[in-house]
Amino acid sequence: MSQHVVVIGGVALGPKAACRFKRLEPESRVTMIDQTAMISYGGCGIPYYVSGDVSDASELSTTSFHMLRDPKFFKEVKGVDARILTKATRIDRENKCVEVENVATGEKACIAYDKLVIATGASPRRLGLPGEDLKGVNYVANPGDATRIREAISKGEVSNAVIIGAGFIGLEMAEAFADMWGVETSVVEITGQIMPRLVSPTLATMGRKHMEENGITFYFGETVKALEGEDGVVKRVVTDKRVLDADAVIISAGVIPNSDLARDAGLAVHERGGVYVDEFMRTNDPDIYAGGDCCIVRNLITGKDAFLPLGSMANRQGRIIGTNLAGGSSKFDGVVGSFVVKLFETSMAGTGMSLESAKAAGFDAMSVLLIQLDRAHFYPTKELMTLEMTVDKATRRVLGVQGFGSSGDAMVGRINAVAALLKSAPTIDDVSNMELAYSPPFAAAMDILNTLANLADNALNGINRGVGPAGFKELWDNRDKDACFFLDCREKGDADPFVERNPGCWHNVPQGEIYDRLDEIPRDRPIVLVCNTGARSYEAQIMLDDKGYKDVTNIHGGMAAIKKYGVDF
């Protein structure tokens, strides 16, 4: 029996649900409404239009075969009646209709439905700052925002840009301003690191250092108090510690789910916003579905509520909703939380929980950090990759993996492999023995993921006892007080420059010579072992343990991690 499905929202989930349903029930009607003039666009591509990587804003709204996804396209190609500039003002559940208003003419109407889909998305979080409405202050929510920003830069109106917030969009926009346009760019972040809660302070520091090398200035632990302007145009950003010149300001302080329409209709909504749905993407009204950025989902690691505004998730949920509207029973179990962000020629990626978020969720967790080549050591295009694994101590369950590496596919491929496992609560042993495709141009025979899990196993068993680059910095800064004996396990040629720069503090005994030179290694001082990546120093730790040394620390990630972290000595 044919039915009429109404979809509120035409960006990501809405079009996917509408088109999937229409394919399964061609005889049924679908009406999709959106209050803006532009629909079905790739919002995550906006920073890359600003940067110039995407040449035309219309490309964000076209198909892979270059058709513009406008109302005409949806009508003729998809059989969906797409009505733009049409705002849903009320859901009348009793009479099963959506009250709407034309935002251009003010004309009101009521659209009856058999089934309803709420895909209202999310809105940028406003900070309520004085001057927030000045010209030149922008959010990054739609292609119109991108066009305004890029036009201002192209006209030479922007010499200094300030980004408020060091999350995904903030970092991507900072790169866009500095890399393509040479704009002097600063990022103000209220917390102490980039990508707070998503990655460890160590990985965040590595990412920050790389962005600083590319001209970005960061101000952490600062609160923006006001935006000041002249003649209605923004000119300065005032924080609690300084005043920054700004011809353009991007506010990237997160988003808030657009769930008021659902709440007003009596649907179950989280106290901080976000529509509750079941595994079939149904609300507490069986005739109303919801998904995408306006929804609350289940975190598959903690079992708790989560809010994850990602276009990839919205598209997957849209297909599930479309299937279920046609009588199917597809399920969306939840999320583990996977991400990747490009930082110039590097990237930061992760899945699951960082150590900070795991502890906040109540896990007795630990983490280990590894730096290893992303492919066979003899292959010419090899690069170092940094991965960090978070593990629950009692159960050995892998809670998450995050990484910092090149902007190619190597690192995100590893992250995606772990993401696929996390919903099944894998242990260290599962990742240690994970089967991964191998060929020297693509991976090492013992893949970095296998080695990372082995490192976690050794750390839990007390075999590999160590700290990362942040721990090394603390030990080095306190070297006089703690009387540590820093032992470089590399060959003489690698170690000599550090021995010469730090006489009396830095010592060298290559790992293969340790048993023959034990008389040079004191037993009454803490020993700190360092090599290139932490592998030889681990072997040295085993050797010293064998000879009865009691206080030996291995630096995980070795000199490679120390360098990326920015320790200068």
TrEMBL record:
Annotated ranges, domain Rhodanese: 480-567
Protein name: FAD-dependent pyridine nucleotide-disulfide oxidoreductase
UniProt cross-references to Pfam families, sorted A to Z: Pyr_redox_2, Pyr_redox_dim, Rhodanese
GO MF, one example: oxidoreductase activity
Species name: Pseudodesulfovibrio mercurii
Signal peptide bounds: none
SUPFAM superfamilies per UniProt: FAD/NAD(P)-binding domain, FAD/NAD-linked reductases, dimerisation (C-terminal) domain, Rhodanese/Cell cycle control phosphatase
Highest taxon of source: Bacteria
Cofactors required: FAD
InterPro entries linked: FAD-bd_OxRdtase, FAD/NAD-bd_sf, FAD/NAD-binding_dom, FAD/NAD-linked_Rdtase_dimer_sf, Pyr_nucl-diS_OxRdtase_dimer, Rhodanese-like_dom, Rhodanese-like_dom_sf
Alphabetized UniProt keyword annotations: FAD, Flavoprotein, Oxidoreductase, Redox-active center
Family: Belongs to the class-III pyridine nucleotide-disulfide oxidoreductase family.
